[in-house]
Amino acid sequence: MKPYLTRLPGAAGSWAAPLFVVAAWLFAALLFAALSGWRPTVSAFAYGFGAIFALVCVFSAVRAGGARSVFWVLLGAALLLRLFGDASWGVGAALGLGTLPLWSVYGIYGASYVLFLAAVLKLVYEASRRILFIVALDAASIMLSVGVLAWYFALGPATIGGNGSWEGSIAILSSFACGAGLLFLCLTILSADRRPPFAGILATAFGAFFLADGLYLASRASGPYTPGGWPEMVWALGLVLFGLAALASTPGETSARSGEISPWRVFSFWFGPLSPAVHFAFLLGWGATDPPLPSYVLWGGAAITLYLAFRISFTTYVSRGIRLDSQSLAVRGEQGRISEELHDTLKQSVYSVSTLLDAYEKAREKEDPKAEDVLADAIEASHAANFQVGRPIDELRARWAGEKQDPSPLLGRLLTDFETHFSIRPHEDLRADLTKLCPDELAAAYRIASEALWNAARHSGARNVWLESREVGPLTIVRIRDDGRGFGEDTASGYGLSLMRDRAESSGGSLDIISDALSGTTVQIRFEK
């Protein structure tokens, strides 16, 4: 059976349902602002409308199934507990329906936020499993620092002044602090490489809840709160946004993003309004001009300082693991590419040699005078095949040598093999320190050198080739040149030149090709440090 919302007009593949519910909330907000005497009633009905809409949408998302059904079950359970607590306290009091004992209401709110945190952490786990632990600790540190700020500037003085009970102040503080943590977790999901399509709406919904808790906190700081104010209206908006997030949910679908968190996002967090470091820097600055600071602020600052020290070391450990995983994936991909290339090269080379040997055998049976020429071609093809087949393997060796030792001897052996197979005189002039090249750069330099030597042997008619390396300022240059006949612009796309350009670009280098009929061909790759 299809989810219920797919039968609602405009709910699937249309903006009609979202526009309708947002317009309904805006209309209720206008009535709330204009009719001061009816505010408790308007806020109660707006809250009830948002609650019904959110529950129906979440129930539909649960019915749709998929990998995120557990998330929607947790979110729906949290909303039900939150709505039950609000109905028994704020909304119930506004409509004259009575309230439950305060201790039970506080327990209901606490359970709802536990479920909210579990649901959002489930999304964090799906979006980026490796950072779940550190993100959870970040959220906890934000909850701590926001709680200390709220207690110092609002709830602590209000409680001491007799504007509320200690239990009620702690419950309000916990809601506000949990709201900040939930908002941070949603922003983390937005930065992940496998974020769900509703992540933006979900973050806005928790932002609305956080804003409503802040308005309620400010009201409690100035005196007893009367239900039916702006906090209920903003909470109603959050419920509407939860429903829209459920409408945008598609089982198993993720939004494509880069797998890397950009530096400006990291900067905006650590120097932004949610940063624990900024919170305690502000408190310490405030205490310097308005002493003394309460002991709980100092203890909280000590806890955050220790956490930041742990976070730096743990982030280094996680970053190293991510880097190793990336390198492992890159190596496996490179091995797959080289294995495929080796298979194709080997198949083509063996076929060419076997064809020439068959032709030689037939020519010899017929006593054809060209039989020796065919045999010479077969021998030449076997030498070429041997050189071609060895290049992918030597490229992997060059990558490994770049991590362990000086790669110059490996390039020298390339020239020796080249002379053995093609009887062209090589000249080695390696003056640059090639240990400065990373494995990717060295593998690219080796492959481009071997490709240029292959082109010189097969097409240039050269008698000499030179393999050179130079350091010119920040540049490291690896150059191959020959004294054969060059090629014109019409053949610039041949002789493996496209392969060499791709290898240079993939390693972050730049390729230069200079060819002249009189002075031969020069191929060089430049790496800038």
In short:
The protein is α+β, with helices and mostly antiparallel strands and 529 residues long. Helix content is 69%, strand content 7%. Strand 4 (510-516) and strand 5 form a beta hairpin.
Comma- or semicolon-separated keywords:
529 residues, five-stranded mixed beta sheet, Rhopdopsin 7-helix transmembrane proteins, 16 helices, alpha+beta, single chain, Heat Shock Protein 90, 5 strands, disordered N terminus
Categorize the overall geometry: elongated
Number of helices: 16
Order of helices and strands: HHHHHHHHHHHHHHEHEEHEE
Number of strands: 5
CATH architecture of the largest domain: Up-down Bundle
Spatial arrangement of strands, main beta sheet: 1-2-3-5-4
Written account of the structure:
- It is a single chain.
- By secondary structure, the protein is of the alpha+beta class.
- It folds into three domains: 248 residues, Rhopdopsin 7-helix transmembrane proteins, CATH 1.20.1070; 85 residues; 125 residues, Histidine kinase-like ATPase, C-terminal domain (Heat Shock Protein 90, 2-Layer Sandwich).
- It has 16 helices and five strands.
- Strands 1-2-3-5-4 form a five-stranded mixed beta sheet.
- A hairpin with a 2-residue loop joins strand 2 and strand 3.
- Helix 5 packs parallel to helix 7 and helix 12 packs antiparallel against helix 13.
- The chain starts with 15 loop residues before the first helix and ends with a strand.
